Amino acid sequence: MSTDTLEGAGLLVRPRPPLLGRMWRGGLQGSEWTWAIAFTVPYIALFLAFVAYPVAFGAWLGRDPSLYFELAEDPIFQRTIVNTILYVGIAVNLKMFGALLLSGFFMRRGWWVKGLLLVFVLPWAMPALPAFISIHWMLNGEWGLFNNFLFNVFGIEGPGWLDTSRWLALGAVITSHIWKWMPFWTVILLAGRMAIPQELYEAAEVDGATGLTRFTHVTFPLLANLYLVCTLLSTIFTLGDFNSVYFVSGGGPALSTHVLATLGIRDAFEVARPELGVATVLTALPLMIPLVLILMRKLRTTEVTL
Amino acid sequence: MTVAVDDAGPAVAVAAAPTSAQRARSARRRLRWWKEAGALGVAVLVLIWTLVPVYNIFMVALESKGDVFTDTIWPSQPSAESFWIVITQGYWYLEHFWHQFGNSVYIGVGTVFFTLAIGSLASFAIGRMRIRYGWVLSNAALLTYVIPASFLAIPFYRIMQIYGLTNNLWSVIAAEVTFATPYAIFIFQQYGTSIPIELDEAARIDGASPFQVYWKIYLPLMAPALVAVGTYALLLAWNEYLYQFLLLSSKQSMSVPVALAQFLNSDEAPWNYMMATAIVYAIPPVAIYYVFRRRMSAGLTMGGVKG
């Protein structure tokens, strides 16, 4: 096609020439189709080879119903289900609520608040592995920093946090997870708070809103949607969180603090039964599917970017 | 501690009740003082909460081997010996440390390149060329984004075994690119809406091929988003553990996190060497994060609370 005539046409027809508009907006023509296909093929190939194929393969591995009966009768698996529910339920809610409160705190002015924020995001900025290894050793009953501190300062003999009791270990795992991930959500909610126009607060102040009413009538209604999306996303991420449990408690004592993500890997690689591992993970589907559906709808409409 | 005194308040012009006005003002001042004190208290708690595990890592790394198994809460004779051991590869778990460090860098660079290339090409086709079934691709990306990576690990590993790619760095790059690209497409599409489509049209009129539009107009204008996503992909690849652990098991192919976790296999782990290794491993991503923080948050805050 000749560029000159098109340019001429563009000059003649003042408001956007429909012909030109159609080229990009309507359909693609001729060689453009080839280009469009060439541009999308890498992603399609990536998706088919490394997402669709593993998903299908996983479903095929876990197809045998007897695997699920076996799991249902396994006391370790039953405990794992309870752990997963507690872990996700408690960790997500404490983390998100803490993030909501702290994001309000970090709205304060002053250089030291900004400096504190930089320190506060450190757990998120550092890789998970060093952080959790450090916590693991810190909670060692005999030589860990935590018990050494209790002994040196208060003269108390602390318990073995990770190897004596299931609930202590699970609590440690939950706390570690919150330590690592609360900064991230605080930053997200902080961005959400900053996007609220200041005029709204001024108007509310004129109407006599202060302190708590300011929060319940201005901040929270505007943050609610973001908070919900973040909570749902965090639920999925926490459900799939492998590192916190694996490195802090390692599933111990006596396999009592596993969650689905770590038990699946254990079944597949340590017990060498991939089918059972896949089945373990697949039992999370009843929770996953509604979450994914709601999230996909929400993420498409709300433009929350993470 | 600063007690703000610049609060003149509305000048109470009525001379009738100076005492009540003064009292109100001092009450307000006292409230403000309490608020400042409360904020400071919160700050101290946040600081302790955040820094204790970080302190622990440094403390153990600076201890000598004998000190690790004592009940001290600070190193009695701090020494940088552990760091020296790591740098000179002076312990048998660390024999190939710099080689493994190189592996991690290789994985990171490969992941960044392919994430940016695949993500930007796909977003260009979806967002700029408006291909008909673009929404299918966006949804596929979104779906991948919300599937936890650890749930896919078992079949992924089996597939890599079938392809004969275990102990091959490319299998890890494939995994990291798979999980970073959805985020890339997400950000690129959102950022792309801020670039006027008329630019593409003008270039088309001048006879540019779609690839030229992509290369000469789209990519340069997308630079901030490319930096943000590139940093994200680099950190993801550097920090990720599970896939690297499953896919890389030989000493030559291991990346740093896998080598680091090896220490946990032995009963009598030299914790000071391990923590020093952990610090050396953590420094690059932390430094990169703090350098690119502002650019990354460009992607984070876009559209913060909409709808």
Reconstruct the topology from this structure.
The complex is a heterodimer of chains A (306) and B (307).
Chain A: H1 3-12, H2 18-25, H3 31-61, H4 65-73, H5 75-105, H6 111-120, H7 122-125, H8 128-138, H9 145-154, H10 166-194, H11 198-206, H12 211-239, H13 243-249, H14 260-270, H15 274-282, H16 285-302
Helix pairs in contact in A: 5-10, 5-12, 8-13, 10-12, 10-13, 12-16, 14-15
Chain B: H1 18-62, H2 65-68, H3 81-87, H4 97-128, H5 134-146, H6 149-163, H7 169-192, H8 197-205, H9 210-221, H10 223-239, H11 242-247, H12 256-262, H13 271-301
Helix pairs in contact in B: 1-13, 3-13, 4-5, 4-7, 4-10, 5-7, 7-10, 8-9, 10-13
What does this structure look like?
The complex is a heterodimer of chains A (306) and B (307). Chain A is an all-alpha fold and 306 residues long. Chain A has two domains: 19-61; 70-302, MetI-like (MetI-like fold). Chain A has 16 helices and no strands. Chain A has helices spanning 3-12, 18-25, 31-61, 65-73, 75-105, 111-120, 122-125, 128-138, 145-154, 166-194, 198-206, 211-239, 243-249, 260-270, 274-282, 285-302. The longest helix of chain A has 31 residues, at 31-61. The two termini of chain A are 43 Å apart. With 307 residues, chain B is mainly α. Chain B has two domains: 18-79; 86-301, MetI-like (MetI-like fold, Orthogonal Bundle), CATH 1.10.3720. Chain B has 13 helices and no strands. Chain B has helices at residues 18-62, 65-68, 81-87, 97-128, 134-146, 149-163, 169-192, 197-205, 210-221, 223-239, 242-247, 256-262, 271-301. In chain B, helix 1 (18-62) packs across helix 13 (271-301), helix 4 packs parallel to helix 7 and helix 4 (97-128) runs antiparallel to helix 10. The radius of gyration of chain B is 27 Å and the shape is flat. At the A-B interface, helix 1, helix 2, helix 3, helix 6 and helix 7 of A face helix 1, helix 4, helix 5, helix 6 and helix 7 of B.
